[in-house]
Structure formats: structure tokens, C-alpha cells
Amino acid sequence: MEKNCVVIGAGPGGSACAALLQNKGFKVTLLEQNKFIGGKCSTFEEGGFKFDSGIHMFATGPKGPHGQVARELGIPQEWLIRDPSETIWLNEKGFFYLYQRMRSNKALKEMVSAAISGKQRIDIINTLRRSIKNFGVQGFIRELSGVAKAHPAFIQKYDEMTTRDFLYLFTDDPTIHRSLNCLSMLLLVVPYTKSSAGEFMYVVSDIFRCGTLGVPKGGAASIPLSFVKAFLRDGGKLCLGVGAKEIIVEEGRVKGVLGTDGKTYTAELVVSNAGLKKTVEMAGEKNFPKEYVDYVNSLELSYSWIATKFALNKRVIDLRAPSFFPIPRLEPERIFSYCDEPDGLPEDPFLFVPIPTEWDKTVAPPGYQLVLCGVATSREVDQEERSQKMLEIAEEKLFSFFPEMKKHIVYKKRITNKDTNRITRKGTAECIGLAQIPGQVGVNKPHPKTPVENLWVVGCDAGARGVGTEQATASAMLVSNLVW
Ligand SMILES: Cc1cc2nc3c(=O)[nH]c(=O)nc-3n(C[C@H](O)[C@H](O)[C@H](O)COP(=O)(O)OP(=O)(O)OC[C@H]3O[C@@H](n4cnc5c(N)ncnc54)[C@H](O)[C@@H]3O)c2cc1C
To answer: Which of 115, 166, 354, 369 could form a disulfide with 312 if both were Cys (CB 3.0 to 4.6 A apart)?
Structure first.
């Protein structure tokens, strides 16, 4: 007999999970409070441009969870991949390009020349000395190979250490610390003083192991939309603009969902993509053991990114890679300290600058260039004035590299934490979900099964590892394999 299931929320996690469960024979109703699909991974069309609601690059593209789910569901996803994929500005020597196929001659040449030239060159001798002092020669080689292979046991060994402390075992070189702090904020949306070293190694190794970092054709929403396409093909029921008001629980067991449309959606299984904290709230704290409620309330959320999106009437930025990341020249630990200060502003911001049209010409009218410029911030929603100032500082820095941009802007759009909150309606604007910090990753990541029978959580708050959307989709694979 088919089992009735309600999935709450059509972010990447919810839409992948709904599609996988429907494909496995469940009778699934997917409730989404917004009138669009994708949650924080959605795309909007305006003036001939396709703007992602956030700023998205996909770490492992077709080889990662999104591609795996698409293959399992038998639906196409068109990926656009470029190598080199990143342009880094590290020092006065100028740009260097980061290749995904690290062992290629070109990639090694770029890395070596960036490491040994310029004022901020990497002190290789000191780095080797420190690493060998801590691990011995054989141990050092073993650790390096552990980082490269990202074997689960190796990753787990470092889950409970911060990325900063892990790095200090090998080097105190400020250029390496600066760069990896920026990478931690970019991939995990937590500074390296807080992020889990195990989780950080997992995501970085995966990028280079897969070598398929990229974007889907047509904008970020193409991913959840492809899952929903399979869901509808297999007979799933989609209710857009219907939120879950309450998760109905009787005698410790889930019975269904009360929708904002006043209807009761009876179900033997409920999977929530609304975030762990909100799920407990909707199901009623009284239905969970007190220790579980205290545990959920104590979990920390990630930081956030805000951005300006520039439409240019010609291709102004002409780089070999489709994204640009200038590393600030600050003390490594000061780069993101402004995020935690009330009214703090970046002295020299780290910028996240993807150029979507360099991957995908279909996201802008012919001849136009779309440039996004992101800056990291805290997760509080109520900081609009500060956000606008941050974006102005970020813009000035971007123009200092590409002064021609100013003359060619035909359209400019900003997104801040209030826009992220408008999508999730959580009252917080974290980019990811739970912060990937010691105590909240690996074996300590919340399990997707909750203490209420047949109530599960899917998405970035439950079960999986990885970068943003990929973590959410990986969680969907896990949940769809574990339920029933
Ligand atoms: C500015 C920005 C930049 C980012 N950059 C990247 C990037 O480069 N790469 C990357 O991989 N990730 C990136 N992310 C993160 C990524 O978007 C999220 O991690 C991912 O979307 C989380 O997926 P999810 O399925 O867990 O939840 P969400 O995307 O948050 O989706 C949850 C869904 O549930 C719905 N919902 C919530 N409550 C209810 C309810 N009561 N009833 C019905 N529906 C409900 C919401 O409307 C939403 O659609 C970025 C995010 C932001 C904001």
C-alpha cells in the first residue's frame, strides 16, 4: 500500500527528498510556503537577466549530490564547468588562477609562482620545519595524503578541531592563514577560527577530487526545479504558496500537517525542510523530550553573505576564470572579526565575485555581463543600514580592480539579509543552516530522525556534510534511504 508523506519546503533538500520518496513509491505532497521553488537556491528573471536569489557556485557540480540525485531520478541537468574556475588576487604580483585539476602542469606552475613571488610569498622552509616538528617526516607525508584523500576516518579525526588550530600544526604563514580563512567563509560560511577542520577538509578535497565545480545552465534554481520536474512526472502533488502552520503530533507520533490554507494534510510520514529549530517549534516543544529541545535550541547557525548584482552593457571583466576573489591584506584573524562586532564594517573586505555570464550566456541579454559582488556578514536580519554600508565598501574595492565597470553599469540590484529572511521567514538570515563547527558535524551532526515517530528533518540541518546546497541534497539522499 502507498504511504502518505508530506514534505514541508521545496529548497534543494526538500525538493530532492520529495522526488526521491515519490520515486520509491510513497504518495508525496510537497508544501512550499513561497510561490516559487528552490528556497535559498532560487532564481528570478528581471529585465532580461536571471538573478540567483543568493550568489551561487556549486562545488562538485555533476559529480556531487545534485548530479547523483538527477541520475537516480533519470532527469537531465546541464552543467557548465570551467578550468581554471577561480581568479585569486593574493599579492601585488597580480592575478593567479586556481585550477581544479591540481596535478596538471599549468595548475602546478600557477601555484608555485603565486607561492614564491610577491611580498606576501609563502615561507615554505618555515612551513616544512613546523610540520615536521609536529608530525615527523613520515607523519607529515601521512597527514598530507590524508588531506588529499579525505578518508572518512581522517576527516573524523579533525572534526572537533577548528580549521585555524589544524593549520597551526603545519604553518604559521600569514598568507596561507589568510587564504584559508577566506576559503572557510566562502565554503562553510563560518570563519576559520570557528569552522570544523574535518568538515573543511572534506569540502576542499571533494572539489579537487571531482574537478567539476560549476553552475547549472539557467541559474541556481535549475537544480531544485529539475528535482521537482521528476517529482511531478512520477505523480507527486505540489502545493505552492501553502505553508505548514503546524505539524500534528498525537501520542508521540506524527499524524500530518495543518496548512496555512486551513486544510489538514494527513500523513504517516512528515519530512521537514524548514530547519531543525522551526520544525521543533511547528511540532510543539511539548512533544519532544526536554533534553532534545535544549539541544536544538543550543545549536549555532552559520554566518551570511549579502551582495550587489551589476548588469554591465559590455564584457568589462576579462579574466581567464569566471570568478574573482581578492584576499585582504589583514591579520588573518581580523578578516571577518567585523561580522561579530555590533555595527562592525570591513576594513578590507574579502569579496566573493562570480561572473555568471562567463559560464552561462543565457542569464543575460546578448553582449551584457553580469557580475556579482558578495561580502560576508552576520546572520541578523535587522541590520539594513550596516548592510548597505558594507556593500558600498565592497563595491569601491571591486571598482579599484576594475575601474571600467563604473561606466558600464545599466542596472544594479542588492540583496541583503532581509531578502534571505523573506524567503525562509525564519527571523534569521544564515546562508547555510546549522554552522559546520566542532560539536555540530560528522557524528555530532543532528540525525535527520527526530524523537517524534515518523517526523524527519531534511536539508542543511541534518545528517550530511558538504557545501550549502550540496549538503542539503546529500541529506535528501540519506533521508530517502533511511525512512521506512
Ligand atoms: C547569499 C547566499 C549565497 C549562497 N551561496 C552558495 C553557494 O555558492 N553554493 C552553495 O552550494 N550554497 C550556497 N548558499 C547556501 C544554499 O543556498 C543553502 O545552503 C541551501 O539552499 C539550503 O538548502 P535547504 O534545502 O536546507 O533549505 P532552504 O534553501 O532554506 O529551503 C527551505 C525551504 O523550506 C521552505 N519552508 C520553510 N518553512 C516552511 C513552512 N512552514 N511551510 C512550507 N515551506 C516552508 C522555504 O520557503 C524554502 O523554500 C548560499 C546562500 C545564500 C543566502
So the answer is: 369
Position 229 scores a pLDDT of 98
Relative orientation angle of helices 65-73 and 12-23, to the nearest 10 degrees? 30
Confidence (pLDDT) at 104? 72
Answer yes or no: is the C-beta of 33 below 6 A from any ligand 1 atom. Answer: yes
Q: How many residues does the chain have?
A: 484
Check if the beta carbon of residue 353 is closer than 8 Å to that of residue 327.
no
d(CA 60, CA 57): 9
Reply yes or no: is the peptide bond before residue 342 cis, omega within 30 of 0.
no
HEC string of 135-192 equals HHHHHHHHHHHHHHHCCHHHHHHCCCCEHHHHHHCCCCCHHHHHHHHHHHHHHCCCCC
Please identify, by atom number, the ligand 1 atom nearest to the C-alpha of residue 39: 49
Q: Tell me if 57 CB under 6 Å of ligand 1.
A: yes
Angle 127-133-138 from CA coordinates, rounded to 5°: 95
Amino acid code (one letter) for 442 = G
pLDDT of residue 1: 59
Instruction: Tell me, in angstroms, the distance from the centre of ligand 1 to residue 432's CA.
Output: 7
Does ligand 1 come within 6 angstroms of the Cβ of 457?
no
Q: Which residues pair with 31 in a beta bridge?
A: 8, 239
Considering the four listed CATH numbers 3.40.1360.10, 3.90.700.10, 1.20.210.10, 3.50.50.60, the one that applies to the domain covering 4-44+218-297+442-482 is 3.50.50.60
Using a 10 angstrom Cβ sphere, with 0-12 exposed, 13-18 middle and 19 or more buried, the burial of residue 169 is middle
Atom from ligand 1 closest to the CA of residue 306: 1
Q: Is the CB of 15 under 6 A from ligand 1?
A: no
> Does any ligand 1 atom lie closer than 6 A to the CB of residue 435?
no
**CB of 376 closer than 6 A to ligand 1?**
no
Question: Is any atom of ligand 1 closer than 6 Å to the C-beta of 215?
Answer: no
Global pTM reads 0.95
What are φ and ψ of residue 6, in 5° steps?
Answer: -110, 130
For the chain, 484 residues long, the average pLDDT of each consecutive 10-residue run is: 91 98 97 98 92 92 97 97 90 78 70 65 76 81 80 92 95 91 97 98 92 95 98 98 98 97 97 98 98 98 97 95 94 96 95 97 95 97 96 97 96 95 96 97 97 98 97 98 88
Contact 194, 435 (CB under 8 A): yes
Gap from CA of 131 to ligand 1 centroid (Å): 39
The residue extents of the domains of the chain are 4-44+218-297+442-482, 127-184+193-209, 304-424
Burial of 287-313, coded b for 16+ CB within 10 Å and e otherwise, reads bbeeebbeebeebebbbbbbbbbbbbe
Nearest CA to ligand 1 atom 1: 54
Residue with cell 560539536: 439
Atom of ligand 1 nearest to the CA of 186: 8
